[in-house]
Design brief:
The protein contains eight helices and 83 strands. The protein has 1112 residues and is mainly beta.
Length: 1112
């Protein structure tokens, strides 16, 4: 790819023009300083205004620090429709503006708009931070207020529109503009011409190519630049529906495929200059339109074309002007003027502009009332308009001869024309589609009086065209005779792939299917780890994990195996045991592993995790592994960084050993791996890789499989990690004057902050970061209120959340705050949040420059006492513990999690504190699982039971049952705790029966409990739950009643000494509600009191789901 466009030799600038490569911000020929005064030397004829109070208050006296005339300009009336205009000598680069009031008076402007134009007709407002934004003016008549423009402006005309002024005086103004000369080479195309530029073939192709230019046009489609390589591959820049598209084409001719690469800009057909540049550095491309840049990689041209490729969108040549076209610092327009560039068609080296004056209606109540020129019985009306709104009135007027009233308006993004007369609808016509630009021509009967308009750029009535800036008009609300059209979705403020749509006054982000939420799709809706899901009470299952929150890494669906630890399990394409056999001519087997998560996701998960592991096993038969102790390894694996590793699972990095070598228990001690003995018998080397910096296993190379008789098999298990270092990262602030400090927080357009806290204090500042004027702060302002305050230049704003209960209860509470260009929000735990909308068209950049203080403030007042944990700013966790280690008054960590998470332990499970988190002890609960939430009871239908049979003592062992427990019964019990819970509607009934090989037994029945042995209970044989005892004489006599079989629910039976809980629990859970009635047996042995319980061990040898009784 690095050489795809190196040998290009033809560039067309066109009406079929194209653009080459990548972007570079090429400024005009700058002087070392660009701050020369531009206004003071101009003649009075260069100044014009909307009106003047008198000849001595004329616009020509509006020069900074001058006292000529009345000492400055003042209009006849002081209202918002006055303006002062200055015509500079030529198009100039303007870098600053300064204002002053009228000398020796009470007249000055306190707020104003600043506008620029090349022609004096088509004006554009200066935008601060992507909104029009008014400038603050003066507070008296003599002081000078200067603003350095954030982005220099190229223009010949400057216009100031006063918005506010001294309430005790009038509008009064003197001004100066600063800048420097601007070099401009322009060329105009009429839609049929183009330039052909051929770079010098003797110049060695560079690794970096740059093409930059400015353009302006009134047409929304047309090809700008085309660059062609000798191979036929081309790069094209075209304007399509007001957007710039950069496309790559493979091949020549009509069948060539177009690869759309990127699209930037919107509504660029506004007759204003726009800057575009394309810069290629090898295969990397930077594409810039105005101030917006996208970076991408050029695709590979090798192989067949992909499906879905598009042809070129535009079939038009470019119609408009280009300026300062530079290709690798060569001025193409200068070469064209010097006849060094081939010219085809009518090309002019000037830029002719239309004198059409657009009108902007800034509010729904704005309108113009125009005089109507009668021209006969019929009339045609034509106009153009542009809007983001889907509904709104365009035009209305009364028809002649009382024929009714015509209404032309937008409805559901379509144009609708209706004629109403005396309450009846006479005509109803709908046309058009949902585009932003319209041309409308319609014919109708002549009308009278006035036409009322909204949102138009030009109006024609029959053969008469109104130049709207030159006519008399009525307007009750702001109407501007220039075009300012807020493009709020280019660039889009919607993050993480959110889809942007806009109206005239605002924009909206559709965050569906992105995994993010909020006004700008900034904050993740998922947790950052399985550990976080566990502490919300979730159990094992698949969950979306967003490891960096609002950062760039996308959420990923990952399996969480939640037990005492919350394991994240990341699968790959081959976790099964893979067998290898001798293959002729193949010396090595190479396997690559593709994981279910992206590389950056896996790296972030591993970094954040407390521990990670991955099983690596090798089964061998006459196939050596690492060739220890002295040979070169036959096999190796490749880790995270692409480096090959020569150690195996269970060994340490760099050891070239297997687990048995490290533990010194290899089958052949002279080798460090079992397989290296080259045995003809099957052997294996298995273990866990746990060095996080090397995980995961990306590839595996297996050698020594080409000899006769060689066989091998390998297995690479899934990557598994537990723990979340950020989730438990905490600091305890034990002094009000203590704090932690971090580098400045950079959240200019979007800032999200989340953390947990617990305290017994009634107030305190959690964090604060200051700028010159801007700031951001979150604090506990009272026991029941959290306050989020900030200032981005529009004045302080506060967002508060009140909670019904006190927050200083020494329990963990979760705080989430977000501020973006649309709003600020604050949430505390699960309480209703609070949202504060951002001011319309105000400042949007949060500019901070001090250190970030955590647990205190810069003034060290109102410090926080308590614990702060898991502090994240824009998805990045601050390491509180690391800073706390070296900060007096702050200690790392914060114990006491059961006070907050103990409620997650259900069903009488008890919470046990851990260093990082907690566990649930279910030993005294008839439930199991992470939160004692899994019911392990079983439902017993009449005639069903469960029997647990122990292995016989050694001296009694004659016929060992294959189904016996692994727990031997040759132990003597002097005491045993037995616990069970049950529910039944039948009484009395047998619940539990324990027998021994010495015919001792323990019986537990509802309402009764008896133990027959008063000394020791020897050689336990079996435990029975819910068994029928129809004619069991011993039990009958004991309870003096014939016991029925148990019918109901018995939960887990707990035998502390025998440790049978886990076995019984798992069995009952698997077999829950599956026990079936027992069929009567043909006969029984008379000499055994346990006969009804079936003491024949061989009777358990065959077990199936059709049996009527289940044994463990």
């Amino acid at each position: 790819m690095s050489k795809t466009f190196r040998n290009k030799h033809t560039v067309h600038f066109v009406q079929n023009g194209f653009l080459q490569m990548l972007l570079k911000e090429v400024s005009s020929a700058h002087q070392e300083s660009c701050d020369s005064p531009l206004v003071s030397a101009l003649p009075q004829s260069a100044f014009t205004s909307s009106s003047e109070l008198s000849n001595s208050h004329g616009p020509g006296f509006a020069k900074l620090n001058r006292r000529d005339g009345a000492g400055g300009w003042s209009p006849l009336d002081s209202n918002k429709y006055q303006w002062l205009e200055i015509k500079l000598e030529q198009r100039t680069e303007i870098t600053a503006i300064a204002t002053q009031g009228r000398y020796g008076s009470s007249d000055w402007v306190t707020r104003y708009f600043l506008m620029f134009s090349d022609t004096g007709h088509n004006w554009r407002p200066y935008r601060q931070e992507d909104s029009i934004g008014a400038f603050s003016g003066n507070s008296n008549a003599d002081s000078v207020v200067m603003y350095k423009l954030q982005q220099p402006v190229i223009a010949q005309y400057v216009r100031i529109l006063p918005l506010d002024w001294n309430p005790n005086g009038r509008i009064g103004l003197r001004l100066e503009a600063y800048g420097c000369q601007y070099k401009s080479d322009v060329v105009g195309f009429d839609g049929s011409a183009h330039l052909l530029f051929r770079p010098d073939p003797s110049v060695t192709p560079a690794n970096r190519d740059v093409l930059s230019m400015n353009f302006k046009t009134l047409l929304n489609s047309g090809t700008l630049v085309h660059m062609e390589e000798r191979s036929g591959h081309t790069l094209t820049l075209e304007l399509f529906r007001g957007k710039l598209l950069l496309q790559l084409r493979k091949g020549r001719g009509s069948s060539a495929d177009f690869h759309p690469l990127v699209s930037l800009g919107s509504l660029l057909d506004d007759q204003h200059w726009h800057h575009v540049s394309v810069e290629r550095v090898r295969g990397l491309v930077n594409f810039t339109v105005d101030k917006n840049t996208q970076q991408f990689q050029l695709p590979d041209f090798g192989g067949t074309s992909a499906a879905g490729l598009q042809k070129s969108h535009s079939r038009r040549n470019f119609h408009g002007c280009l300026e300062n076209v530079l290709y690798n610092d060569i001025s193409v327009i200068e070469r064209a003027e010097e006849k060094q560039v081939s010219i085809t068609g009518n090309v002019s080296f000037t830029c002719t502009e239309s004198i059409d004056v657009p009108v902007t209606f800034a509010s729904p109540g704005s309108f113009l009332a125009l005089p109507w020129v009668s021209g006969g019985e019929s009339v045609s009306v034509a106009l153009q308009f542009r809007t983001w709104n889907k509904a709104g009135l365009l035009m209305t007027f009364d028809l002649q001869h009382n024929a009714g009233t015509l209404w032309l308006y937008l409805s559901e993004a379509r144009v609708r024309l209706q004629i109403h007369k005396t309450g009846r609808l006479m005509t109803d016509i709908t046309a058009g589609s949902a585009h932003a630009l319209w041309d409308i021509i319609f014919s109708l009967f002549d009308s009278k009086s006035k036409i009322h308009l909204s949102c138009v750029s030009r109006v024609k009535q029959s053969q008469h065209q109104w130049h709207l800036s030159n006519i008399k008009y009525d307007f009750p609300c702001p109407v501007f005779f220039f075009f300012f059209f807020f493009i709020r979705c280019s660039p889009s403020r919607c993050e993480h792939g959110g889809r942007c749509s806009q109206s005239w006054s605002t924009f909206h982000c559709n965050c569906s299917a992105t995994g993010y939420g909020g006004a700008t799709c900034h904050s993740s809706i998922y947790e950052a780890s399985c550990e976080a899901y566990k502490h919300k009470g979730n159990t094992s299952g698949f969950y979306y994990i967003d490891v960096d929150g609002s950062g760039p890494i996308k959420p990923q669906l990952i399996y969480c195996n939640i037990s005492d630890k919350a394991w994240m399990v990341i699968q790959h394409n081959n976790t099964e045991l893979t067998k290898l056999k001798v293959s002729s001519g193949i010396n090595q087997h190479l396997a690559h592993f593709n994981y279910s998560a992206d590389v950056e996701q896996i790296q972030a998960i591993i970094t954040q995790a407390e521990y990670c592991e991955q099983e690596l096993s090798y089964h061998c038969k006459k196939s050596r592994l690492l060739n220890t102790p002295d040979g070169a390894p036959f096999s190796w694996w490749v880790g995270q960084s692409g480096e090959a590793h020569m150690y195996w699972g269970g060994a340490v990095p760099g050891s070239q050993q297997c687990a048995c070598g490290l533990q010194e228990n290899c089958v052949h001690p002279e080798h460090f791996c079992n397989c290296d003995a080259d045995s003809k018998e099957w052997s294996n080397d298995s273990g866990l890789l746990s060095h996080k910096e090397h995980l995961p296993v990306r590839a595996l190379t297996v050698g020594d499989i080409n000899r006769s008789g060689s066989e091998a098999a390998y297995r690479v298990g899934p990557l598994q990690c537990y723990g979340d270092n950020s989730f438990w990262n905490a600091a305890y602030f034990n002094k009000e004057t203590s704090y932690l400090h971090f580098p400045t927080f950079h959240g200019e357009l979007s800032a999200d902050i989340s953390f947990l806290f617990k305290t017994s204090s009634s107030s305190g500042v959690f964090l604060e970061n200051l700028g010159i004027k801007d700031f951001i702060r979150i604090e506990l302002s009272s026991p029941t209120q959290v306050l989020f305050s900030f200032d981005v230049g529009n004045g302080p704003l506060e967002v508060k959340v009140e909670t019904p209960s006190a927050l200083n209860d020494e329990r963990w509470h979760h705080v989430r705050a977000e501020r973006n260009v649309k709003e600020a929000s604050l949430y505390v735990d699960h309480h209703p949040g609070a949202v504060q909308k951002a001011p319309a068209d105000g400042h949007i950049h949060l500019q901070l420059n001090s250190q970030l203080f955590v647990g205190g403030t810069a003034s060290r007042q109102k410090g926080f006492l308590g614990c702060i944990r898991s502090l994240k700013l824009n998805g990045k966790t601050l390491d509180l513990e690391e800073r706390a280690e070296i900060t007096p008054g702050v200690t790392p960590g914060c114990p006491g999690h059961c006070s907050s998470y103990g409620d997650l332990c259900q069903n009488h499970g008890s919470c046990v504190e851990a260093h990082s988190g907690f566990t649930c002890d279910c030993s005294l609960s008839p439930f199991t699982g992470t939160f004692c939430h899994k019911d392990v009871s079983a439902f017993f239908k009449p005639g069903t039971s469960v029997t647990y049979t122990f292995k016989e003592p050694y001296e009694l062992n004659r016929n060992v049952s294959a189904q016996s427990s692994s727990i031997y019964s040759d132990l003597t019990l002097k005491g045993e705790n037995v616990s069970l819970s049950f529910r039944t509607s039948q009484a009395p009934a047998l619940l539990l029966y324990v027998s021994s090989y010495y015919r001792e037994f323990l019986a537990h029945a509802q309402e009764y409990f008896n133990l027959t042995s008063d000394t020791e209970f020897n050689a336990i044989k079996s435990i029975v739950l819910g068994k029928r005892l129809d004619l069991l004489s011993r039990v009958s006599s004991l309870f003096r009643v014939s016991l029925c079989c148990f019918s109901g629910v018995i939960a887990v039976v707990i035998f502390v000494s025998l440790a049978a809980l886990a076995v019984m629990a798992r069995f009952l859970y698997r077999r829950k509600e599956t026990f079936q009635p027992q069929e009567p047996k043909a006969g029984k042995t008379d000499d055994s009191p346990e006969t009804p319980f079936n003491t024949d061990p061989n009777s358990q040898s065959i077990i199936s789901d059709n049996q009527k009784e289940y044994f463990i």
